[in-house]
Design brief:
There is one protein chain. The protein has one helix and five strands. The chain is mainly beta and 122 residues long. It has a domain of 69 residues: 2-Layer Sandwich (Heat Shock Protein 90), CATH 3.30.565.
Length: 122
Amino acid sequence: MRPGAAGPGADGTSVEQPAGERPAPHPARGTITVHTDHTPKAATVTVTDSGEGISNDHLPHVFERFYRANPGREAHRVGSGLGLAISKSLVEAHGGTLEAASDGPGRGTSFRVHLPRRISTD
């Protein structure tokens, strides 16, 4: 993170920053909100944007390898369709879950990572 950039609060608060702080394409006046939460048993990070959103038809498939919602219309976009599949595998390898939610096209998307805390056996 560059000096002076906003980041998630250590106390579990949300932080909003302009889309310009994000390297990936995003609507000119969009926002990305990062919310953290923690309990003695788990930690959760939710990242929500105000971007394109995902339709209900495509939402169940976003974690599938190579899945692209509209491959013909998205020829200008880079990526192989592996990022979310890899992310989900990594989170699950640590006993967690990765979920996506969207109210549909034009309404943004949220991704929630929930990871259990390790309990020390010392």
